Amino acid sequence: MGATELIIQIVGYLGGILVLYAYYMVSSNRTKGDSLHYQFYNILGALCLIINTAYHGAYPSMGVNIVWIVVAIVSLRRSHALKTVAGRLRIGGRKKGAI
Fold it and tell me: I need a labelling partner for 88 at 20 to 30 A (CA). Which of 31, 51, 55, 62 fits?
């Protein structure tokens, strides 16, 4: 095994670990599915897996990881948009920050 192949293998294992870590964090209620923390690890893990699967020609798996990233990005955008709108609304007739 050459240096390039070793790096690709390490990147692949790292990607798997990151995606599983994100899943563990949500499953154990340590973070929420729409949190930046969860989506960051999903995106980073999927990117690593894409590198590995592209190198090995595993295109169906690569496609799944591309879709995984798209879903994560859409979730982040939706979550950010909801927080932006909620921040502009008055809650209980009071302005944000009012006591």
Answer: 31
State the pLDDT confidence band at 96, using cuts at 50, 70 and 90. low
Q: Where are the domains of the chain?
A: 8-86
- 76 φ, ψ (degrees, to nearest 5): -65, -45
Higher local confidence (pLDDT), 86 or 10: 10
pLDDT surpasses 70 at 18: yes
